[in-house]
Structures are given as structure tokens and as C-alpha cells.
Amino acid sequence: MKPDFWHERWEKGEIGFHQNDFNRHMQDFIRRLGVQKAAQILVPLCGKSLDMIWLAEQGYRVTGIEISELAVRDFFEENSLNHEILRHRDVVIYHGANIDIYCTDFFAMEKRRMLKIDAVYDRASLIALPPSMRSAYASHLTGLMDEGVRSLLVTLDYPQEEMRGPPFSVTTGEVEQLFGTQYDIKHLHSEDCLVNEPRFRKKGLTRLDEQVFVLQKES
Questions:
Q1: Residue 198: is the preceding peptide bond cis (ω within 30°)?
Q2: Over the stretch 54-69, which tens digit does the pLDDT of each residue have?
Q3: What domains appear along the chain, each with residue ranges and CATH number?
Q4: How do residues 133-188 score in pLDDT, each as one tens digit?
Q5: What is the 8-class DSSP label of residue 68?
Q6: Max intra-chain CA distance, the chain
Q7: Who's near 52: CB < 8 A, 6+ residues apart?
Q8: Who contacts 49 (Cβ-Cβ below 8 Å, separation ≥6)?
Q9: What are phi and psi of 142, to 5 degrees?
Q10: Residue 152: what are its φ and ψ, rounded to 5°?
């Protein structure tokens, strides 16, 4: 899955993964990150997620990483957010009052180029990637974080053979496999959400479970 795939999806408006409301699990479990207001929360592969608005409204500072500048431009324009555009070599930064989004390939992002990250919120990053890319994602994300930093991770678990991703199915076992050696993992919540997702039922899914985890980096 190369960058052109995502550029094309945004250009064609094929963004079924975008939610038009705040994520309920984020609202319910954000305190489990254990950070104070004004903390810096990283949202990788952020798209134009409205969750960033909610986080900023709670007093957090948000750092997003998104490869599609179209998505980032839409985010600031659709939400009428004042911002300036900064250009530093291969990275374009949309700088707002409490939200900064780096327009770059997540895998090319270097820790030294960002402010210190206090926590991570991932609702649509890991599940956006096919199995072949998830190990590299977990490794690179880990490299951006200091010891002790917590992540709130939301995944989907469904019979992968019933639907092509993205979003892809990520099982609890795979979360353990990807992060278990360097993180303390707590499974916070599991919910059958198929009844509330008619578009997935139309695609033939017989089961759709939303899982919520908090991960704390140990080494």
C-alpha cells in the first residue's frame, strides 16, 4: 500500500473511514492516558478526523501526521480553523492554535522534528494498514515515543475474508504480537458494533467487534 493509494482515495472522496462525529471510545477512555491538559497528543495517519477538534477543546495540544495535504487542508477549512502553513524541506506543517498537522509520510517522520509526545491516540491508523505494514508501523511509532508514554488504541475485529480492507481486521492477539515485547497492554473494552454499522452489514460482515486498549511503553 503505497502513498499514491491514499492520495487517490482522498482525491476521489473515497473516505468511508472518516467519521462525522467524535469517537465515543475516545471520549470514554481518554483519561486512561494519564496526561494533564496541555499535554501533546500524537494522532498518526490522522486524515481530517474530528477527534482532533474534541481533543483540542479539552485543552490538549494535538500533533497529527497525514500524507495527504488535501485531507489536511480540508480539515482546517471545513472546521473554520485559523492556521498558517509552514514549509520545511520535505515537510509541510499546518499550524493552528492547538493543532499542528505534519503533511508527510508517517514512516519518514523523525522524532527530532516534533515536539515531545506525551500520549498517542490511534483510532484509524493501525487498522488502515495491511498486515505486511503493521510491524513497521508499530516499530516506527515506538521510536517516536519516550518510555512511559501511553497510547489509546481502537481496533476493529471481523472475519477478514468477508470484506476487503481498509479498514482491516486486527485481532487482540495481533495487538499483543505487535506491541507485547515493549508495552504493558490493557484491554479496556470490547463491543459488538455491527448493529450500528449498516454499511458494513451491506458488505456482508457477520461480525464486527470494536476493541479498545491502552498501551504503555516500557522500554
A1: no
A2: 999 999 999 999 999 9
A3: 3-12+24-217 (3.40.50.150)
A4: 999 999 999 999 999 999 999 999 999 999 988 899 999 999 999 999 999 999 99
A5: -
A6: 47
A7: 43, 46, 62, 64, 75, 99
A8: 18, 19, 43, 64, 75, 123, 124
A9: -60, -40
A10: -100, 115
